[in-house]
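Lab notebook, page 48
Experiment: co-folding of the full assembly
Goal: obtain a model of how the components sit together before planning crosslinking
Operator: M.T.
Materials (sequences as entered):
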Amino acid sequence: MFYREAGQFKTSYAADSAKFPIRQDLVAIWIYLAIGFLVIPVFGDKYFIEVIMIPFLVLALAAIGLNILVGYTGQISLGTGGFMGVGAYSCYKMATYFPDMNIIVLILLSGFFAAIVGVIFGLPSLRIKGFYLVVTTLAAQFFLEWAFIRIPWLYNYNDTGAINEITRESFGYIITGAQSDYTVKYLVVLSIVVGMTWIASNLISGRIGRSWMMIRDMDIAAELMGVRPLYAKLSAFAVSSFYCGVAGSMMVFFWQGSAEVEIFDYNRSFQILFMVILGGLGSLLGSFLGAAIIFILPIIIRAAPDYGIPIQAATADHISLIIIGVLIVVFLILEPLGLARLWGIIKQKLRVWPFPY
Amino acid sequence: MNVHDTVLSAAMDDGIAPGEELLHVDNISLSFGGVKAITDVSFDILKGEIRAIIGPNGAGKTSMLNVINGFYHPQEGTITYRGEERRRMRPYQAASSGISRTFQNVALFKGMSTLDNIMAGRTLKMHKNFFWQMWRHGPALAEEIEHRKVVEEIIDFLEIEAIRKAPVGTLPYGLQKRVELGRALAAEPSLLLLDEPMAGMNLEEKEDMSRFIIDVNQQYGTTIALIEHDMGVVMDLADRVMVLDYGKKIGDGLPEEVQKNQDVIDAYLGVSH
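Observation: model returned without errors.
Model output:
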C-alpha cells in the first residue's frame, strides 16, 4: 500500500539508473543505516553487539566477496576460508612489523595480499569451469591451511600456533585488543562493511560488473563483445579475495580475538558458500540475508531454553543443522536465486497491490 | 531520421569508401580432425553491401563466420580485413577492430536486462578504469550516461522501448533476436555478421527483422554478412550471394545469377552423384 512508485517520474538517465529508483527503498536504506549507526550502539547490549552483530557483519562481508565471484562472475570457489586466512595472517604480520600504523589501514591493506593470492589461485579458471574449478579452489584452501600451520613465521613462532589481536589505538579510541570498547569495535566494523558494500554496488552497476556478468551468462558472446576473459575473471578473483581477506582480518581483530587455523578451514568456505546460495546468487542484499539466516538462526535456536522450550544445547545445534540443510535443498529446488529473489517477488507484488499485475 | 541517427552513423564510419573491399578471404581451409568444414574458399565483402552466405545444413556457413571473427583459426589461407592481413586473432581483437555478430542460437546474457545487454555491446567503448568505477559518481557515471544515450537510440531504432528493463530470459524469441541485433549494433560495427537472424520467426517478425536489416545497412552504412535459410528474404535483401556446400564454394554473384546456377539448384534439390 505504501510501497508504490506512482508519481515518481525519472527525468534523467542518472535518475533512471540510480541504485534505488523507488523513493521508498531509498528512505528504507537510510532508516536501516540510522538504526545501524545510531540505535544499535546506543541501545544494544554487549552480548547483542559482540556475539551477534559483529560476526554477522564480518560474515556478510565475506559473503559479498564470494558472491562477486560465484554470483556475479559464475566462478565457483571453495577457497574462501583460505583467502580469509591470508587476510588475517598478513594483517597480523603487518601489525607486528609496523606497530605505529593505524590498524584500520592495515586491515584494508591485508585485503591486497588476499587479492594477490586469489589471482594466483584464480589462474586455473581461465582454462577450466564448474566442478573442476571447485576442485582447484579446494586445493587452494588445503594448501593455504597447510601454510598457516607449517610456516611458523606467519604466527611469529609462538608456541600456541595462534595469532592474537594486538591492542591498537586510533583516533584516541582503543579499537582492538581486550580493553577495547565493543561499541567502538562495532562502529568500525559497520563502517568498513557499509563502505565496501557501497563500493561493490558501484562496481557491479558499472562496466566492470557488467563484464563479470557477461562472462557468467555467456562467455563466448562476452568475448565477442570485447571482454577479455583473462581480465574479467582475474579481476573478479582479485576483488572477491580482497573482500574475503578484509573479512578474515576483521574476524581476528574485531571478533575472535585470537585465531588458530581452524577458523579458516574448509568448513568456513562451505559456510560462506551456503550463505551465498541461500541468500541469493548475484545479490548484495542476498549476502546479508544469507549471513543472517545461517549465522543468526543457530543462535536463536540455541537460546530456545530461555523461552521455556526444554532442549539441550547439542540437540539445538543438530536442529539448526537440519533446518539449514533442508533450507539449502528447498532453495536449490524451488528458488535457486535465494532469499533476495523472494524479497524481490514480495516487493513486486506490493508495487501492484491490490491488483495481480 | 532524428538527430541522433547521424551520431551513430558518423561513429561507424571507418574511412573506407562504399564499394571498396572491406574484407577479403583467401583460400581458407578449416578442418576439425578428419572433418573438413571449409575447403579452399575465397570471397570478398565490399563496404556497404549486404552479403548473403547460403547453403544446405552443415555447409560450413557458421564456421565461415567463426573464422572471420576469430573463434576458429583456419589451417590454411588468410583473411584481409580493412587492408590488414591477419592469420590468428582472438575474438576480442576482432571485436575491437569493428566486427560484431549475432548467433544462430540466441546468445544473450540471460540474467541481465535488455538495457544491460545492449550496454554490454558498448563494453569496448568504455574506458573509465577500476578506481573511477569504484566511485561511480562523477566520471564513471558521466560515461555511463553518455553511452546510455547511444543505447537508447538503438532501443528507439529497434522499437523495443517497452522491454527496456525486462530480463531478457523472459522475452519471447522474436524479441530476443531483436535485442541481440541491438547488442551487436551497440558496438558500432563496420562489419556486422548475422547468423540466421530470422530462424524460427513468423512472417510478421521476419518482415520486421528485414526492415531493421535494411535500415541498419542504409542509415548507418553498416556492411552486413548474412546467413539465412529463407530464400525469399535472401534474394530480396542481399546485394550478392555466396553459396557453400560441403565446405566448398559452389556459387557466387548477384542473387539472380545464383538462382540460375545449376550447381546451386542441385545442392538444394539434391542430385544422385
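Interpretation: The interface with chain B takes residues 12-14, 17, 199, 202-203, 205-211, 213-214, 216-218, 220-228, 235, 282 of chain A (CB under 8 Å).
Next step: discuss with group before ordering constructs.
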